[in-house]
């Protein structure tokens, strides 16, 4: 029996991971520790809330004594840290909460597991896994499409978000080097799929297009991201936990680089056809003032995880985006709940005064 203590399990990737683990293993317990920020939503976990293998704990990872007592109480084999502030645009507005959660929260968890695991008996087969991002490597150029982020690419973050994630990665590495803590770090590219909060590109565009609202594309729209279907990311994390070499970093990516314009046009085409609605068209696109410090291109070479663990992305982008659009169309109530109230104020604040370029 393996016990997973997952933090941030009520968010986008964390909730997909909870579903993944419970549906792929019988003999597990999953403890989900989440403080339920605007991005955390227990509706994502309604289907497993009665599962006796699942426990929800409402707590903040920055609460040091609580984290320590949870590690003592549940004695997890694996601690998987998803909990974070995750949106680059919010980090540009308010960097300090990113340092609090992403850096200090990570240290609080590291201290809890170090104190619980690094005594006379040692950690055994236990592991701490930090869910990180390719954004810690900085940016690649569009002119060198054959250059990719590798595990030994120097960290060179640009946004407050990626700076906080890179800092956390350095602390995780330092706890491995200093205290011998058994860790892994995964650095994944952009995820998409069910339960993603509609402040991120794909769900925001699906939501706006459906209601014939403007589709705000930053700058020229030629920035490139490597998109991975969320379930493929969950599978990679579970593999790294169970089979990854202790102390190693693994990059995770989809070999699926697309420009933002491509993504937006694909969503428009798919939605217009599904809903038989000609008003969903490219004339909804507005090129708006660019994001400050906007990274041009992210691209991952997931060779190490493929060679060592046999992981490869299984969901082609065309299938993944079709499944994602179906999920949002079938879950209008979920979308309504998360976009009511403060979401309207967020949208007005972030986009209301943004200069329209074309
Ligand atoms: P998300 O914003 O959807 O979810 C974050 C979750 O963390 C929420 O449930 C929130 O309530 C919880 N949380 C925030 N602060 C907390 C705190 N102090 N204590 C406890 N819980 C807290 O994020 P996501 O997109 O699911 O990303 C999850 C992780 O994966 C993050 O660490 C992110 O950096 C990383 N990541 C994300 C992507 C992506 O494309 N979304 C790609 C690579 C890596
Ligand atoms: P996002 O989903 O915020 O992920 P990240 O910044 O972590 O890569 O954004 C993906 C890309 O889409 C990024 O280049 C910024 C761009 N973008 C827009 O053009 N318009 C938008 O409204 C948003 C949210 C993002």
Topology:
Elements: E1 2-7, H1 12-24, E2 28-34, E3 54-58, H2 64-74, E4 78-81, H3 88-93, H4 96-117, E5 127-133, H5 160-179, E6 183-188, E7 190-192, H6 201-210, E8 215-218, E9 224-229, H7 230-243, E10 249-252, E11 257-259, H8 260-275, E12 285-288, H9 303-309, H10 317-330, H11 332-339, H12 342-351
Parallel strand pairs: 1-2, 1-4, 2-3, 4-5, 5-6, 6-10, 7-9, 8-12
Antiparallel strand pairs: 9-11
The structure holds nicotinamide-adenine-dinucleotide (NAD) and thymidine-5'-diphosphate.
Residues 7-8, 10-14, 34-37, 39-40, 60-62, 82-84, 86, 101, 105, 131, 133, 165, 188, 190-191, 197 line the site of nicotinamide-adenine-dinucleotide (NAD).
Architecture overview:
With 358 residues, the chain is of the alpha/beta class. The chain has a domain at 2-195 and 227-255 and 297-317: Rossmann fold. 42% of the residues lie in helices and 16% in strands. The strands form three sheets. A seven-stranded parallel beta sheet has the order 3-2-1-4-5-6-10, sandwiched between helices. A three-stranded mixed beta sheet has the order 7-9-11. Strand 5 (127-133), helix 5 and strand 6 (183-188) form a beta-alpha-beta unit. Helix 1 packs across helix 7 and helix 2 crosses helix 4 (96-117). The N and C termini lie far apart (57 Å). Bound molecules: nicotinamide-adenine-dinucleotide (NAD) and thymidine-5'-diphosphate. Nicotinamide-adenine-dinucleotide (NAD) binds at residues 7-8, 10-14, 34-37, 39-40, 60-62, 82-84, 86, 101, 105, 131, 133, 165, 188, 190-191, 197.
């Amino acid at each position: 029996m393996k016990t997973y203590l997952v933090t941030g399990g009520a968010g986008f990737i964390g909730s997909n991971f909870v579903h993944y683990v419970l549906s792929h293993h019988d003999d597990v317990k999953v403890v989900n520790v989440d403080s339920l920020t605007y991005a955390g939503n227990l509706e994502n976990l309604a289907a497993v809330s009665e599962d006796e293998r699942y426990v929800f704990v409402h707590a903040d990872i920055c609460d040091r004594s609580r984290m320590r007592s949870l590690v003592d109480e549940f004695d997890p084999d694996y601690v998987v840290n998803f909990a974070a502030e995750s949106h680059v645009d919010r980090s540009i507005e308010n960097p300090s909460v990113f340092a609090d959660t992403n850096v200090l929260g990570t240290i609080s968890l590291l201290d809890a597991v170090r104190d619980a695991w690094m005594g006379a008996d040692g950690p055994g087969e236990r592991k701490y896994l930090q869910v990180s991002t390719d954004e810690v490597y900085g940016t690649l150029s569009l002119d060198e499409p054959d250059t990719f982020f590798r595990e030994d690419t120097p960290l060179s973050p640009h946004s407050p978000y990626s700076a906080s994630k890179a800092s956390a990665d350095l602390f995780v590495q330092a706890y491995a080097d200093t205290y011998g803590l058994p860790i892994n770090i995964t650095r994944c590219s952009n995820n998409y799929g069910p339960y993603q909060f509609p402040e991120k590109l794909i769900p925001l565009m699906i939501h706006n297009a459906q209601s014939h609202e403007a589709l705000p594309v930053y700058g020229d729209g030629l920035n490139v991201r490597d998109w991975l279907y969320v379930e493929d990311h969950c599978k990679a994390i579970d593999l790294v936990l169970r089979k990854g070499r202790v102390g190693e970093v693994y990059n995770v990516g989809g070999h699926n680089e697309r420009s933002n314009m491509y993504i937006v046009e694909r969503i428009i085409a798919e939605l217009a056809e599904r809903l038989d609605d000609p008003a969903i068209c490219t004339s909804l696109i507005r090129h708006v003032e660019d994001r400050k410090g906007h990274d041009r291109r992210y691209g991952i070479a997931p060779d190490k995880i493929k060679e060592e663990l046999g992981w490869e992305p299984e969901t082609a982008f065309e299938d993944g985006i079709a499944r994602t659009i179906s999920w949002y169309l079938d879950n209008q109530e979920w979308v309504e709940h998360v976009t009511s109230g403060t979401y309207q104020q967020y949208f007005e604040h972030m986009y209301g005064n943004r200069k329209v370029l074309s």
